[in-house]
Structure formats: C-alpha cells, structure tokens
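Ig-like domain-containing protein
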Amino acid sequence: MASLIRSGMRSLLLTAALLLCCLSCSAAWSGGVDTEWYGDGSARSYVISAPEELAGLAALVNAASDDFTDKSITLSGDIDLNGRQWMPIGKFGTTPAKTFAFEGILDGGGNTIKNLTISGTGISAALFGYIGVSGVVKNITVTGSIAGDYEYLAGVADINRGVIERCENRAAVTGAAEDSRCAGIAARNFGRISYCVNSARVEGGEAAGIGCENGGYYPSGLYLAERAVIEGCVNSGEIIGKAGGRATAGGVAVTANSYTLKNCKNSGPVKGRGNSALGGIVAETNSRTDAKSSSIDGCVNSGSVTLEGDGSGSGVGGIVGGTGGITKILNCRNTGNVSGPNAPVGGIAGRLGGEAGTSISNCVNSGTITSSYIDGESYAGGIAAINFLLIEDCVNLGDIRLPGSGVSQNWTAAGGVAGANRGSGGMIRRCASAGRVESFSTYRGGIAGYNKAHDPQDDEGIITECAWLDSSAPRAAGDAETTAGACPFTSEQQQKIVTACLLVPFSATVAQNGAADFTLELFPGTGAPFGSHVRELSAAVTPDNIAAAATKGAVVAVSGKSPGSAEMSVRVKFCPSDLSDPEFGPSETPHDIVLSAGINVVERIPAAGITLDKSAASLRKGETLTLAAAVTPADSTDAVIWASGSPEAASVADGKVTAHAPGTAVITARAGEFSAECMVTVIDTDTHYGGSGGCGAAPWSLLICLGAFCLQLRKNKK
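Predicted structure tokens:
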C-alpha cells in the first residue's frame, strides 16, 4: 500500500512538473499582439502584465488609435520579450500625418523589460520611438540588445520631448553605421531626463551614455525653443564613438544645444578616434545665439577620456570636448585621465570658444592630461587646452604632459591652467595650479603655455590674480619671462591656498526617513581653515516635502521625507585666497556661490543582515586597514554606519581603520537593526611581529584568537 502511495505521488509530481514546463513554454512571447486590456479605450488607467499586451500598446499608438493623453499605464511585473524583434512604441514621420507620439504615462513600477531585441536596418531602434511633450516614462529597467544599421538607437527612446525619469538601461546599444546616433537612454532628447542610469556599452558613429543629441534642432532641421534637461543621471558603461570629423562621444551627451546638464556623473571610459570631439560629460556644445545660454553645472567625471588616431582639429576634455555659442561650465570636477594625439586636451574643456559669456568657473581637475605631439597642433591644459574666453576661480591638481619631438613648436604648448590663452578675449583670473607641467615644447608655463593671439596685432591674453607651484614650471607663461598677474608658491604654501569650493558628492540617493551627508570641500589647500574662507553656508531643498537639509560646519546633512526627486541649493559666502597677497590670506570681499545637488528619495528597503570580511585583525601603530561590509539584501537602502569602541586605539571612517595607539578596539558596522564586529588589536611600532611562526607572534596571535572567541560568545548570547 505504501509503495502504491509513493508511486502515485511520483506520478503526481511528474505531472505537475510537466504542467509547469508547459506553462513556462506558453509564457514565452512569440511576437503576438494583445489589445483586450484596452477595452473600448474609455478608462484612464490600465495595467499591463504580458509581452503581448506591451506589443498591443505599440500597435495602438502606431496605428493612431490612441496616443494615451491623460491616461496612465502600469506594469504589474517584469515583462520578457524573449529576444523577439521589437517594434518601437511611436514614431517620428516625414509629415504630421505619419508621426505618432506616446503622450501618456507609463510607470514600470521598478520592473524590468527583459530581452528587448532590435536588429536590422531602419531609422529608429528603441523601446519607444517617440515620447511626446505630455509623455512620461518612468521606473523601468531595460535589458537586451539594440543593434543594426539604424540612424538612431537607444535603450529607452529614440525621440524624447517629454519626461524620462528613474529608468535604467542595461541593454547593449550598437550602431553599425558611421553616421548612427546612439545612447543608453534617448538618442534625441528635447525634453527632460532625470535620475536615469546607463550601465551598458554604447557604440556607434556618435555615442553617449544618456542622451546623444540634446535640445535645439529637431530632426527636420527646424529649430525649437524647447530646452533639453539632463539632471542627476549616471553613466558607468563604456562609450565608443566611431565617427571622425565631428562630435563623437560623451559620457552623458554628445551634442547639446539650448540645454541644462546638472549634477550628472560619468565613471565609464569614453573613447573616440580621429579629428573628433570627446568629453567625459559632453562631447560638444553648440548653443545658438538666438537661444538662452546653456550650462553644465555640478557634473563630475572619473572615467578615462581617450582619443585615438590623428586628433588634428578636435577637442578632448574631462567635462566637455569643445564649446560653441554661449556655454557656462561651473562647479564641475574631473578626476579621470584625458589623452589624445595632435589634439587640444584639457582637464575640463578641450577648446573653450564660442560667444562672449562662455566661461569655466569654480571647477577642479586632478586627472593627468596628455597631448602627444606627432605632427600638427598639440595643446595641453589643466583646465582648458585652448582658451578664447574666460576661466576663473579654478584649480588644477593634475600633471600636464606634452611628450613629442620635432623642430616645429609654433602650435604646441602646455600650461597648468591653459595650454594656450588666446588674446584678445582670453582671460584667466583667480586660478591656481599645483600639477607638474612636462613638455618638449619651449611653451611651458605654470598658468599658460602660450599667452598670445593668433594675430600678432591683437592683444595678448590676460592672466591676473593667479598662482602656480614653483617646482611645476619655470614661469607663469611659457612665452613671457615675467607675468605681472601671477606668482609662484611653494608646496608648503599650497596647503593654505584656496581658490575653489565644491560640494561632495554631487548627488545622492536617500532612503525615506534615512540620511546622507554632503561636504563642502576647499581646493587646493587641504590645511586651510574652513571658517576663514567660508563666512556663511546655508541650504534649502525644493520641493521641501521630499527632503530637508541642515548645515553644521562644512557638512550639509540631508534627511529623506517622501519618495521623489528634489534639488538642493547650497549658498556659500566664499572668500578665496588673495593671490596678490604674499601670505595668500583670505580675500576681504566674499563671493556669492550657489552650488546644487540632486537628491533622489526612495522607499526604504530594510537590511536583513550584515557581515564583515574580517572578524579580527592586528595593526601596527600608524597602519590602516579597510574592512568590507556586505549587506543583505544587496539593494537595501540602509546605510552602513561605522563606529569604534575605542577610537583612541583605532578609529574608523567609511570602513577604513587607522591604528593610533597600542590596545584593542571593537569596530562595529551597523545597517538598520543589524550589526557586525571586528576586533582590532593595535601593536606598538617597536613590537616585533615574530613572523609566521616565531615566539614573538604567539602572544599577539593568542590575543587575536581570544578577541575573536569573545566576539563569538557575544554573538551567541544575542
């Protein structure tokens, strides 16, 4: 009887398994379309749960049945498109009658559209072909592959005139044609992209992590007054531009015309080749004179920016390759290495040109800048390779290199702030450089390598209230024995010189009821007294129902109130060092500086546990150790808070333990209601470790083991 029951159970389980397999097979999308969820179209909200239904949305929009104005659609879960060829939702046609835009709200609810696949030839390849002025697409992650001989390719949308927010692209985007425009989020952006992420590789004729073409010109060539905005976005994917002779690759954007880029970050490598513009944030700006000025504000690049091949006529920059029209670059920072042969290569901008009003202000570079001379123009500058307009209140900490050989040096120059400061419009004021300037060219200067105009009859460039590290270059300007507006400083004096201030980080994600700290950092002097240079510091968040901010010393503490996006404005009454003063003391008249930071408040995902990679460790006095904490679940929003039970013996900051005096300290890492501990034993510097098996090692090994045993007892009692 028992064997009969067991046999029956096995049959039942086998039948259930077969049914599950059949259900799984039937769930795989075969390319079909379902519009039953739409009904008669009178509803204002809909829920989509299957790939056929998502394809039904595309069919309804593309047939002009409904553009979904004032209607919302929500995804109830992940949707797997099964690698089938996808038809984008909406499209831009040659006439209004052939143009179909999505004007509704699509809320992904944090779900993923998996295995989005587009291949072949055509105009547009993306999840959406056209998001209209009223359209909103949010809270979606896309995976898969978008590739082929298309003109415009992207993970989320070809054309965006509406809003794309909190979306992530993980789908590889590859344009086969040299004139293809590719991006992780939107190929053509004339609207707003907020708090989006691209973590995938993007390669094409022109390639960008977030938006390829932004603002100003519509595909028909018509100029629109629509101002493109990209804010709080992050790219970590590799960006590769294949086209030559124009703007090619940018970590965030390729071209920008009548736009605002604010609080964006790139950490992915940016690569291009031959006679093109590359930028860690934007390849090239080209704002029209009949449009409002455009800005790149509070952006940071840590990815390498590399031009390969002959770079004649190009521009390569840590933030922007080249500028046109009226462009303001402010409060930005580059830490990535920037390089290119026969090219203007700069820490912030390759070429700073365009209309009057264009400027770089309150920016810092600490990346290594290299322009290799082969045959042609080669300029290297800590802030800009070539400056035709205004650089002010900036700091360079990176080394400047212009290697090469040859007889002609007329078009080669390297400088701590600018390779060439072109008169009569070129001006550098209140800037400091502490990076070494290495160049085969005779035009090598602590501030500017070359400080004259193209036309000998024009005035030379202006350098005023500037200073450079005396050991980095023999003089301020490489083409002048003396420069009245600049003076050298020693490495000891550098510690108290301050010419710029930045908010770190530039944006943050905060859990609801959670907290995050921003710090106002002064550059270049790390030893400068904060209170002498910052007279007032205040912060406000808009809208104030999303988050709140409070200041204490150099720290701005932010607390999350409710899920949503907000902008924090930090106002600083800043007194930079008076570089005309031999003592480099703070200036008497403060400058009013407004810094901004993006704040993204999300619902709290509580921690379920935390572990450390070590439960015990020993350090000599003065040594450091970095502990790694692992929080589960991985997407928990609870921040890891570190503490030392005996900071006089060993202190901890962000997991980095520093040994101060002999003794023991329990290092605690806490996430939410959970904690993990590591017993750190500090050994006096004169104490002999005793190697791996000597007598001297035994007492300390015993003490460490005893400490670990005590910790385990404490955990067992909990």
